[in-house]
Amino acid sequence: MQRKSVTDQSHRMSPWREKLNEVIFGSETKAGRNFDLALIALIFLSALVVMLDSVEDFHNRHAQWLNILEWSFTLLFSLEYLLRLVSVRQPWLYVRGFYGIVDLLAILPSYIGLLFPGAQYTMVVRILRLLRIFRILKLSVYLNEANLLMTALANSRRKIMVFLFTVLMLVVICGALMYVIEGKEAGFTSIPRSMYWAIVTLTTVGYGDIAPITPLGQIAASLIMIMGYGIIAVPTGIYGAELIKTVKQPVIRNDACPDCGSIGHDADADFCKYCGHPLEDG
Amino acid sequence: MQRKSVTDQSHRMSPWREKLNEVIFGSETKAGRNFDLALIALIFLSALVVMLDSVEDFHNRHAQWLNILEWSFTLLFSLEYLLRLVSVRQPWLYVRGFYGIVDLLAILPSYIGLLFPGAQYTMVVRILRLLRIFRILKLSVYLNEANLLMTALANSRRKIMVFLFTVLMLVVICGALMYVIEGKEAGFTSIPRSMYWAIVTLTTVGYGDIAPITPLGQIAASLIMIMGYGIIAVPTGIYGAELIKTVKQPVIRNDACPDCGSIGHDADADFCKYCGHPLEDG
Amino acid sequence: MQRKSVTDQSHRMSPWREKLNEVIFGSETKAGRNFDLALIALIFLSALVVMLDSVEDFHNRHAQWLNILEWSFTLLFSLEYLLRLVSVRQPWLYVRGFYGIVDLLAILPSYIGLLFPGAQYTMVVRILRLLRIFRILKLSVYLNEANLLMTALANSRRKIMVFLFTVLMLVVICGALMYVIEGKEAGFTSIPRSMYWAIVTLTTVGYGDIAPITPLGQIAASLIMIMGYGIIAVPTGIYGAELIKTVKQPVIRNDACPDCGSIGHDADADFCKYCGHPLEDG
Amino acid sequence: MQRKSVTDQSHRMSPWREKLNEVIFGSETKAGRNFDLALIALIFLSALVVMLDSVEDFHNRHAQWLNILEWSFTLLFSLEYLLRLVSVRQPWLYVRGFYGIVDLLAILPSYIGLLFPGAQYTMVVRILRLLRIFRILKLSVYLNEANLLMTALANSRRKIMVFLFTVLMLVVICGALMYVIEGKEAGFTSIPRSMYWAIVTLTTVGYGDIAPITPLGQIAASLIMIMGYGIIAVPTGIYGAELIKTVKQPVIRNDACPDCGSIGHDADADFCKYCGHPLEDG
Q: Do D234 and B149 touch (CB under 8 A)?
């Protein structure tokens, strides 16, 4: 953004758009901060209203009020979206960005709900807008922690995908096996449904809506459960090992070799390990 | 406390209050130790009586005896609370402190139960008074271990809050999604109720009182379960990594060798391990 | 394979078999790559058809089409199996190998299903053929990760077997105990069935189809649950500890500095980090 | 044992008792090895018969045969127990030891079952006798692994007891809370029963036989579940951290300082860190 503004200095924004940008996107000025806090309150209230509207008793008694409130929130958020479009220097970058998509998702369901009743409940995705909290409240310490967790997750994504691929194949095979063994009385009415059971069992959720009743089925299910029990160790091990590696501060000198400029020397190194030149006293 | 008593030496407590303090708060004298042991026995008995009273059969047969016993315990604990107030030098500090609040919570429910029947069962919180056991029985080794676990928990509190915030948003979105997909037949009668289901599923508890029945709902539920399965790795990884860091003794001197400038010497080292020069007295 | 071909150069394969081998087993040529991609698509489609066929509604409406499709896939895979047998230099090595067995398992169930109706559903094991994806798509990075996970698993196999043996004995004893305590009303109709319950409980799956109803049974079940809760820490700890050891790159030269004899130099070090002397070519 | 035999050399056992001891307790001679293998087979068979006897169908059809078999096994094991008593030098040490108790538990239930029908099913504890397998089959590698797991468990026993004490207090308080909130319709008929529910929920087993139905109860249950979800990280973290510490080989020179005899020097140390004397070239 910083780099962009340098090249775009020729077509500066008009003063009122600059001011608007400061209030809506910034959180340094008093006005900007108040706007952000009001926004958070609105998001919370709006999600609460959608939730309450879905409770039948509540809906029947207060249908009209809830409807008015929901449309007020939608119109307010729509207005805000337009203002963001107007006040930002490069609207297209905003629209395509993560927050732009979330902001759009917060208003679309209401309008879609006019055509397909029921769809408006998905507007609870506007709760995602609360992710701004981190930025608004300057919770940079929390941001660092979140980044650490995300880095560990990103570093272990390949192991996790290998793991998920293996689990998926297990689910297909266990599902078909139980379908053949148990049959329809116990609820294993088709392979996809048996696969659903296999996932419920492997993840140790275990609703009990489908459960084996024949001895052979129970033996097979026992083996699957013990397997699932062992398998749960894998993602935990993967993520834990990655997190330990990410958290651990490597004991490394942070000065470069004065001769060859190489870095990454151990804390106890006296000479450059690449060219043999003495390192400076650390 | 020690520092306080020095400045307050002018208004010393009368000898009998001093004696009372020794018995009730101390555990060094024989009388103090006996008092503590009797107190532990009373707490156990009292919690047991409340539990038994809640069993209908038992209540119907022994209502009168149980009532007498409960009020005896309440009066004893009330008397004890008053004695603590009298015997302590600064009553207000005791009342505001952790143990003061727990001691009060142990007697309040009985009196509140006179106004609101049912409230008296919450008096099982007096079980919290057993936390004194650690102090009374001089289980300092266990206290150290507890401190270690608490330190690791405190150090990872930010990561855990980021994690809980993420889970909360997941629960809201999954709940609304399943409400729209499944509808009322399967028990997803409102978004809050669907959120309850989402928590039951993500934590892998899986009661089965609410469970998806449509194919689309079961596919969505499967994805949520696998997500929950992966998510359980996060708190375990966070806490495990923190615990490893907390347990590990760094035991490294943070001064350099005065002769060769090398660092990283063990805490118990008297001489530089690289050049043999004596290290400064640490 | 490479070593084999050297010794077997005398009886070279005829050119068309060589060409066939390149297409079917190789993935370097354009033809070989296309064959592999078509195979993956066929495997996916075939597994999908078997799954859909098991859904009663779908089966009733499209029985004939599904039957034709299934037999087409089976004949195609049979043909492919024969071609593999023909084009490989040492057919017996292929038949005995992992992929040879999987390829056979992918076609056998159809023929067995002619004799024993129902058996054909087990042909979803052909999903295992997707394991070739790793090789075909040159996902070597993923293969490395998979190898890492497998190495950690292999290294901890003894600990895991000790653990499983212990769990098995726990299951037998808990099962018999609950059978004696609970009796038939709660579903504990025999020791094997109680053992099934013990596995469902120890793995924290908890269907709820069998659950203790007497107070004594619930106390025993509580102890078993808490035990299972603690036990889940064991495989996670075993696997996590192993994974940390496996992931950690030792990357340390195992030769000493020829000048000062110091050890522990990084794998990429050319000079001793303690005295600056050149290390020998590693 | 070795040390004992030295002091007891005066009253040597008679040759036939010595021979018997070798067969029953030893596994070095051919006879001893065959005896051990036969014993393992008998234990397996005996446990299997008890299990099958508990299946009603099976019991009704083969009651007589099963009875004869069970008593045969019991008499054989009783005879074996007597022979062990006779052939061992110090019978009382054997009777008091772990294996002595297990051997006795394997025969007692049958006799107790004569007085209290049903008790005989607990004779499956004879499965514990299989623990001898480790010794018999010379599975010393497995024994080492088991020792490692046990050491880690023993080292973390204090942390685990602190954890269990905390969980116990949580269970009492959550149980009482849910009893007050939910009442009898949902199955929370007494505090002990609510505590059973709390354990089922905290351990994420979740049978669903008792589940909250009021909104307030479901909110409270959600909090308890999330707490249980976080709590599961604690034993895993404790045990994992301990296991890593136990497994890890410290990088330490295994030679002593030639001057002061101190040990435990780092692998890269050139001089003794306690007296400054040069260490020998490692």
A: yes
In angstroms, the CA B236 to CA A55 distance is 35
A&D contacts, CB < 8 Å: 10
Q: Do D206 and C201 touch (CB under 8 A)?
A: no
- Is the pLDDT at B155 greater than 70, yes or no? yes
Verify whether the Cβ–Cβ distance B158 to A145 is below 8 Å.
yes
Which residues of chain B lie closer than 8 angstroms to A125, CB-CB?
Answer: 173, 176
Residue A83: closest CA among A23, A156, A173 = A23
Summarize pLDDT for D58-87 with one digit per residue, the tens: 888 988 888 899 889 989 999 999 998 888
Whole-angstrom distance, CA of residue C210 vs CA of residue C224: 15
Asked if B159 and A145 count as a contact pair (C-beta separation under 8 A), the reply is yes
Q: Which helix (H) or strand (E) holds D151?
A: helix D140-155
Contact A207 B204 (CB under 8 A): no
What is the value of ipTM here, to two decimals? 0.76
HSE at residue B270, side-chain half, CA atoms within 13 A, is: 7
Q: Which domains does chain A have, with CATH numbers?
A: 2-142 (1.20.120.350), 157-248 (1.10.287.70)
> If you measure CA to CA, which chain C residue comes closest to A239?
C240
- The Cα-based distances of A153 to A142, A146, A245, D62 in angstroms read 16, 10, 12, 58
Percent of chain D as helix, strand, coil, to the nearest 5: 70, 0, 30
Give which of B100, B219, B227 is closest to B167, Cα–Cα: B227
Q: Which residues of D touch B167 (CB under 8 A)?
A: 226
Per-residue pLDDT band for C18 (boundaries 50, 70, 90) equals: confident
C-alpha distances out from residue B140 to B147, C241, D162, D242, Å: 10, 30, 12, 20
CA gap C191, D54 in Å, rounded:
6
Does B141 have pLDDT greater than 80? no
pTM of the model: 0.79
Nearest residue, CB atoms, A236 vs list D206, D208, D236: D236
Among B164, B239, B269, beta carbon nearest to D273: B269
Q: Smallest Cβ distance to D206: which of A206, A236, A268?
A: A206
Touching A: which chains, 3+ CB pairs < 8 A? Answer: B, C, D
Hey, what are D234's tokens? 């604690």
- C261 in reach of chain B (CB within 8 A): no
Whether the CB-CB separation of B167 and B200 falls below 8 Å is answered with no
Q: What is the DSSP string of D50-96?
A: HHHHTSHHHHHHHHHHHHHHHHHHHHHHHHHHHHHHHHSS-HHHHHH
D276 in contact with B at a CB cutoff of 8 Å?
Answer: yes
Q: Which residues 6+ apart lie within 8 Å of D212 measured at CB? A: D178, D181, D182, D186, D188, D218, D220, D221
Contacts of C193 in chain A (CB under 8 A): 218
* Chain-chain contact of A208 with D207 (C-beta, under 8 angstroms): yes
In the stretch 30-59 of chain B, residues with CB closer than 8 A to chain C read: none
Q: Name the residue with tokens 């059971």.
A: A197
| Chain D interface mutation, best of B50, B128, B133, B203, highest count of D Cβ atoms under 10 Å | B203
**Residue B208 forms contact with C (CB below 8 Å):** yes
CB neighbours of residue C1 within 10 Å:
8
DSSP state of D14: P
Q: How far is B7 from chain A (nearest CA, A)?
A: 41
CB neighbour class for C240 (10 Å; exposed up to 12, middle 13-18, buried from 19): buried
B70 vs A114, A186, A209, B75, D172, CA distance in Å?
61, 50, 43, 9, 17
Q: At what angle do helices C157-182 and C140-155 cross, to 10 degrees?
A: 60
Pick the closest to residue D70 from D111, D31, D24, D129 (CA basis).
Answer: D111
Does C252 have pLDDT greater than 90?
A: no
